[in-house]
C-alpha cells in the first residue's frame, strides 16, 4: 500500500473509532463490539482492502497489550485471589482447550493438530470488554481482580501451549514427559528473561532510576516491552510470557520506587492510550477482515465452535470453582455467572490465528473459524454482558459507602501530594518556607479525612446499613494487613528466625481471620 493510501486509511479508521466511541457511550454498548460492527460496515469506504498482518500483530500489538496489562496489575491484590485465578488460568485453560478440540475433532472432522490449535486459541479469554463493563457498573474488587488475573495468566499458558502444539506439528512426535519438559523449559526460560530485563531496567542501579523525565521513561518502557518480546523469541522461549513478567516487575518495583508521582501518572496514561489505540485498530480490523459471505457459508462450523467454547467454560468455571471452598473463600454463585458470561474472545485469539503456519493444510478454514467465533462472542456476549452485570446487583453503593470512598479519596490524594512535596523539597525545587506552607494546607485535609474515617470505622456494625455491606472496604484493608502478617511470618520461617511450630500456629489463626472477612 502506498504512503498516501496508508494515511487515508489511518484517517478513516481514526474517525470511525472516534465516532464509535461517542455512539457507544450514547447507546451504552461495549466499545469493542461497536468497533467490530463498524469494521463490517466501512469496508467499502476504504480505498483499498486492508487486513490484519500477523507479523505486525505479534511483534508490535501483542507486546503492547501484554505489557500494559502487566504494568497495571497490582500483585498485592492478586495475593488474596491467587487460588481461584490459578485454577481458572491453569487447569481451566487446559480443560477448555481439550473440550473444544474434542468437539471440533469429531464434529467437523478435523485432524488432531488443527483441532488442538483452535482449542488452545479459543480457550483464551479477553478482558477488554469485561473490564469496560466493570468501569460502568460497580462490582466487588475481588471479582474484578479474578477477571484481570485470570486473563493475564491464561495469556501466558495459552502462548506456551500454542507454541508446544506447533512444535509437535513440526517434529511430528509427542511424549507426555517430553511435553512437560518443554512446557517447564518454556515457562521457566520466559520468566528468567522477563525477570532479568525487568530488574536490569528497574533495579536501584537500573536505567529507570537514572531517568528523571517522563518522556525518557516512556521510551524506556516501550523499548523494554518490544525488546523483551524479541529477545524471548530469539532465545526460543515465549516472548509474550517474558513481556508479562517484565511488566509485572516494572509495575511493582519500578513505578513504586524509582518514579515520581507526576512521572508515574504520565507513564500509566501513555500505556493506557497505547493499549486503547491498539485495541481500537485490532477490533476495527477484525470487522474489516471478516468476509460476511464466507462467514455465512461456514456459519454451522462457527456455531459449533461457539457451542464448544460455552460448554468448556461451564465446566472450567462452575466445576473448578466448586473446589475453591475446600481451601479458600468460596467464589459466590452469581460471580461465577459473570465469569462464565465474560468468556469473550479478543485480540490474542486473532493474533494466534493469523500466526498459524502457512504450511498447515487447514489454515484458511481455521482462521475463518476463529474469526467467526470472535465476532459472535464480541457481539453476542459483549452486548449482553452489561445487562447481566446490572441485573445481578453485584455491588450496590450505599450512602455510607459513598461517603467512605470520598474520604478515602481525599486522604489518598492529600498524602500523595505531600509525598510529591517532600520530593520537591529534597531536590531543591521548593524553598523550605513555601514547602511548609503548602504541606500544612494538605495536612488539614489529611487530618479531617482521618478523623471522619476513624469515626466511621469505630461504629458498631449494627449502626450501619447491614443490607449493603458497608464494612466491605474495611474488610479489604484488614485483608491486606493480614496478608502482610502472613508474609512476615513466612519470611521468618525461611530465615529460621521463628520455629515452624510457633509460626504455623499463628498462620492458621491468620487464615481463619481471612476466611471470616466479607468478600470485597
UniProtKB/TrEMBL annotation:
Domain Cation/H+ exchanger transmembrane: 15-390
Database matches in Gene3D superfamilies: 1.20.1530.20
Example GO BP: regulation of intracellular pH
UniProtKB keywords: Antiport, Cell membrane, Ion transport, Membrane, Sodium, Sodium transport, Transmembrane, Transmembrane helix, Transport
Membrane-crossing segments per the record: 6-24, 56-73, 85-106, 112-134, 155-177, 183-202, 237-256, 268-288, 300-326, 338-360, 366-389
GO CC aspect terms: plasma membrane
InterPro entries, sorted: Cation/H_exchanger_CPA1 (IPR018422), Cation/H_exchanger_TM (IPR006153), Na+/solute_symporter_sf (IPR038770)
Cellular localisation: Cell membrane
Entry GO MF terms: potassium:proton antiporter activity; sodium:proton antiporter activity
Protein name per the record: Na+/H+ antiporter
Entry's family note: Belongs to the monovalent cation:proton antiporter 1 (CPA1) transporter (TC 2.A.36) family.
Membrane-related topology note: Multi-pass membrane protein
Pfam hit, one: Na_H_Exchanger
Amino acid at each position: 500500500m502506498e504512503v498516501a493510501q496508508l494515511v487515508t486509511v489511518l484517517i478513516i479508521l481514526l474517525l470511525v473509532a472516534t465516532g464509535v466511541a461517542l455512539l457507544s457511550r450514547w447507546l451504552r454498548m461495549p466499545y469493542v463490539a461497536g468497533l467490530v460492527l463498524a469494521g463490517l460496515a466501512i469496508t467499502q469506504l476504504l480505498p483499498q482492502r486492508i487486513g490484519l498482518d500477523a507479523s505486525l500483530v505479534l511483534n508490535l500489538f501483542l507486546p503492547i497489550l501484554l505489557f500494559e496489562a502487566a504494568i497495571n496489575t497490582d500483585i498485592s491484590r492478586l495475593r488474596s485471589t491467587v487460588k481461584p485465578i490459578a485454577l481458572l488460568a491453569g487447569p481451566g485453560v487446559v480443560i477448555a482447550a481439550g473440550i473444544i478440540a474434542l468437539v471440533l475433532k469429531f464434529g467437523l472432522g478435523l485432524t488432531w493438530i488443527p483441532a488442538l490449535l483452535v482449542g488452545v486459541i479459543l480457550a483464551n479469554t479477553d478482558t477488554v470488554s469485561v473490564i469496560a463493563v466493570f468501569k460502568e457498573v460497580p462490582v466487588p474488587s475481588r471479582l474484578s481482580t479474578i477477571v484481570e488475573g485470570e486473563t493475564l495468566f491464561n495469556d501466558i499458558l495459552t502462548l506456551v501451549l500454542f507454541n508446544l502444539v506447533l512444535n509437535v506439528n513440526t517434529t511430528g512426535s509427542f511424549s507426555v514427559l517430553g511435553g512437560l519438559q518443554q512446557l517447564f523449559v518454556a515457562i521457566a526460560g520466559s520468566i528468567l528473561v522477563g525477570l532479568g530485563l525487568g530488574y536490569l531496567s528497574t533495579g536501584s542501579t537500573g536505567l529507570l532510576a537514572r531517568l528523571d523525565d517522563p518522556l525518557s521513561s516512556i521510551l524506556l518502557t516501550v523499548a523494554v516491552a518490544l525488546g523483551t518480546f524479541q529477545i524471548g523469541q530469539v532465545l526460543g522461549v515465549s516472548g509474550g510470557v517474558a513481556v508479562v513478567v517484565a511488566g509485572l516487575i516494572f509495575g511493582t518495583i519500578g513505578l513504586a520506587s524509582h518514579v515520581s508521582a507526576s512521572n508515574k501518572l504520565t507513564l500509566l496514561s501513555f500505556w493506557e492510550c497505547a493499549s486503547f489505540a491498539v485495541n481500537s485498530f485490532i477490533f476495527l480490523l477484525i470487522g474489516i477482515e471478516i468476509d460476511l459471505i464466507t462467514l455465512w457459508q461456514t456459519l454451522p462450523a462457527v456455531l459449533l465452535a461457539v457451542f464448544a467454547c460455552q460448554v468448556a467454560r461451564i465446566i472450567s468455571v462452575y466445576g473448578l470453582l466448586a473446589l475453591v471452598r475446600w481451601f479458600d473463600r468460596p467464589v459466590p454463585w452469581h460471580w461465577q455467572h459473570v465469569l462464565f458470561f465474560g468468556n469473550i474472545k479478543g485480540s490474542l485469539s486473532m493474533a494466534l490465528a493469523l500466526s498459524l503456519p502457512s504450511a498447515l493444510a487447514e489454515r484458511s478454514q481455521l482462521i475463518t473459524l476463529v474469526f467467526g467465533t470472535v465476532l459472535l462472542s464480541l457481539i453476542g456476549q459483549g452486548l449482553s454482558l452489561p445487562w447481566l452485570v446490572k441485573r445481578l446487583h453485584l455491588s450496590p453503593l450505599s450512602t455510607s459507602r459513598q461517603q467512605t470512598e470520598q474520604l478515602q479519596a481525599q486522604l489518598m490524594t492529600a498524602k500523595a501530594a505531600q509525598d510529591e512535596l517532600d520530593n520537591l523539597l529534597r531536590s531543591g525545587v521548593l524553598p523550605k518556607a513555601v514547602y511548609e506552607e503548602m504541606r500544612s494546607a494538605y495536612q488539614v485535609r489529611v487530618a479531617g479525612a482521618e478523623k471522619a474515617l476513624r469515626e466511621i470505622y469505630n461504629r458498631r456494625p449494627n449502626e450501619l446499613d447491614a443490607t449493603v455491606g458497608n464494612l466491605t472496604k474495611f474488610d479489604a484493608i484488614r485483608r491486606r494487613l493480614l496478608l502482610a502478617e502472613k508474609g512476615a511470618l513466612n519470611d521468618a520461617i525461611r530465615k529460621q528466625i521463628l520455629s515452624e511450630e510457633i509460626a504455623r500456629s499463628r498462620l492458621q489463626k491468620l487464615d481463619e481471620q481471612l476466611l471470616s472477612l466479607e468478600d470485597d
